[in-house]
Amino acid sequence: MPNSTQLLVLVVALAVLLLVVGLVVVNNKRRRHAELVDRFGPEYERAVDDLGSETRADRELLARERRIRSLELRPLRERERRQFTANWNQVESFFFDDPAAAVQRADALIKAVMEARGYEQEHFDQRVADLSVEHAAVVQHYRAARALATANVQRGTRPDVDELRQAIVHYRALFLDLVNEEPELAHRHVWHGRHAPSRA
Predict the structure, then answer these.
(1) Residue of 29 and 57 predicted with greater confidence
(2) Rounded distance between C-alpha atoms, residue 136 and residue 138, angstroms
(3) pLDDT at 45 over 70
(4) Half-sphere exposure of 50 (CA within 13 A, CB side)
(5) Which pLDDT does position 185 carry in this prediction?
(6) Which of 38, 159, 169, 183 is the most exposed, having the fewest neighbouring CB atoms within 10 Å of its CB?
(7) pLDDT number for residue 26
(8) What is the pLDDT of residues 67-100, one digit of tens each?
(9) Burial label, 145 (beta-carbon count in 10 A; 0-12, 13-18, 19+)
């Protein structure tokens, strides 16, 4: 049988081991937390506000990362990128004739690009959650565009062209990030120039 000295040494060694393990776990959690804050940026703060704590936000964002890893996401082929860019140019051109319909087309185009990239066509909130993992810096534009478009539909009267123009701007920000398009497209503005629509 171990004597009291050996038992004391064993207890102390076990305590030290547990302390080291605890420190490693805490440090890993802190490191992972910092990585989530850095990766998700404003989306992290939104998750904290929505869920009520950083612990819950960490858990939610880690779950989003796991879901995205289960999907087979891929970049667009150059042919696809050119076609989607041409489609986007048509959306912007169509805005001057029918702003509300152009916004609907922009929303449909975003979904088409997502599908081509490998995202699943879930409900809107799930699409936003999925996009937040790889496109956290621009996903708020998707929410803003949808909110503006929905407000115009619910209004049931003549559309607010300024709001619809803002919706197109938000959709464009997400679109560019999804297709990784050439920067000159980012400088095209549907609300400037001699063809800009007048207020409805």
Answers:
(1) 57
(2) 6
(3) yes
(4) 12
(5) 46
(6) 183
(7) 61
(8) 999 998 999 999 999 999 999 999 999 999 999 9
(9) buried
Q: Token pair for residue 37? A: 């804050």
Going from N- to C-terminal start, the domains of the chain cover: 4-70, 78-187
What's the number of CA atoms in the CB half-sphere (13 Å) around residue 85?
18
- Dihedral (CA of 118, 122, 127, 133) sign: negative
Rounded distance between C-alpha atoms, residue 63 and residue 68, angstroms:
9
Inform me whether the pLDDT recorded for 2 exceeds 80.
Answer: no
Q: Give the model confidence (pLDDT) of 168-188 as tens digits.
A: 999 999 999 999 854 444 444
- SS3 letters for the chain? CCCHHHHHHHHHHHHHHHHHHHHHHHHHHHHHHHHHHHHHCHHHHHHHHHHCCHHHHHHHHHHHHHHHHHCCCCCCCHHHHHHHHHHHHHHHHHHCCCHHHHHHHHHHHHHHHHHHHCCCCCCHHHHHHHHHHHCCCCHHHHHHHHHHHHHHHHHCCCCCHHHHHHHHHHHHHHHHHHHCCCHHHHHCCCCCCCCCCCCC
CA triple 144-120-29, angle to 5 deg? 75
Percent of the chain at pLDDT exceeding 90? 58
Give the integer Cα–Cα distance in Å for 118 and 152.
30
